[in-house]
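Posting for a labmate who doesn't have an account.
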Amino acid sequence: MENDLIFVMGSNTTENHPVIGTYMKRAVKNGAKLILADPRRIELAEFSDVYLPIKPGTNVALLNGMMHHILVNDLYDHAFIEENTEGFSEVKAILESFTVADAARICEVDEKLIIKAAELYAGGPKSAIYYAMGITQHSSGTDHVKAVANLAMMCGFVGKYGTGVNPLRGQNNVQGACDMGGLPNVYPGYQKVTDQVSRSKFEKAWGTELSSSLGLTIPKMMEKAGDGSLKMLYVMGENPMVSDPDLNHIEEALDNLDFLVVQDIFLNETALKADVVLPAACFAEKEGTFTNTERRIQRVHKAVEPPGQALEDWLIFHKLMKMMGYDNKFSRPSEIMDEIASLTPQYAGISYERLREKSLQWPCSSYDHDGTVFLHEGKFAKGIGTFHGVSHIGPNETTDDEYPLILTTGRVLYHYHTRTMTGKSEGINQTVGSAYMEIAAETAEQLGIINGELVSVSSRRGRIHLRAVISEKVSGNVVFIPFHFAEAAANRLTHNALDKITDIPEYKVCAIKVEKL
């Protein structure tokens, strides 16, 4: 890592992105400074120069407090803002009336820590922000991301090597799936379905008429399934019966469908509800590419043939398309990549032959282009960077006398997502084989809870039973539950309050109570 200052926010990097976490620890040992903002005292806290144990859901308050100090002490990059951005006056007006003291009160952290973090970040000279779902999974998550971008632009740490805003993707090849149009509003390459020019290009390539209407996000699909207006669902490589919020609602929605198809490598909790299960090949049983969190496209080579009736994903789709009357022309995965290159500007220079030599980072605009190491060099991709004035908005659900504790959810090092794969490993299950809840010693004492005992955890939506683990990682009224375990699924408790722009649910904050059994 070529950073002088690493600011990690909303990411338990060493557990959720362990390779990147290793590079962060190595960078600190080589002299880089580290700021960590997280409600839990995770491993990176031990490597940090400043640890900010913020209250869940207060990211915007912290960032605005840091920017206030940077503003009033003239630590920001005047030239970068003037030459490369617009809208700074809107942000400046908000920052002038929001002090470090305001941020400290809302976040429940020491003012001095916020000031130290602000000065370290602004001082750089190569400062980078790394964030994950602790930023995005809030009912105001878009505002949290905008505040991150505001801080980076304010200090001029965009479009320069070793700086930038670096979102860490939640699962393998999430970046590639989004690049390929796995979103309800775009075709591959983020070309909008509402744009006539883009739509015409894909209509010509695919020989069919395409809709100009936006599709549904997952939460909206579940809503429509629940009210009966969505009749059929095709789920591929996903397990909403563990991963989606308010699981009682999800179960009712899936049970209300006329037809459910699940395509996966194992029979997961969602597949158990399916009318048809299509057995798919795992990564080692197919050809293809993965695109990682730094936009790096990497070849995947088949090591073994798929077992039994399992088929590669592309081949399942190929057969279904033919059965439904569409005669697609592909005979091998490399031909699909050639079509991607012909239709997706960012992938225009990508081919299996080139990826045989080395991985490439998009945008890669032609076959003689070497790819792009970092974005926005010289100027922003859209021409000019836009500041957005955002203020702290509290979580959708707050604590009260009946539900006095704050639940935040997340992942652990040993398990991957809903344990469809890792749950089948004896060694992993011997290490972390069952659900648990981290609770602070003082909170456990108030509730008469002993370390390791079985407790009841309930919210306004559901109840689960699991082990209580007294932990120094959490403090005050905050508790943490990993979401991996179907038998005591944290998402029985979470709610489906959505961000108004992205429809991302607020997984990271909900009100609960804990009781002895």
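Reply:
Got it, the structure tokens are right above this. The first helix runs from residue 13 to 16.
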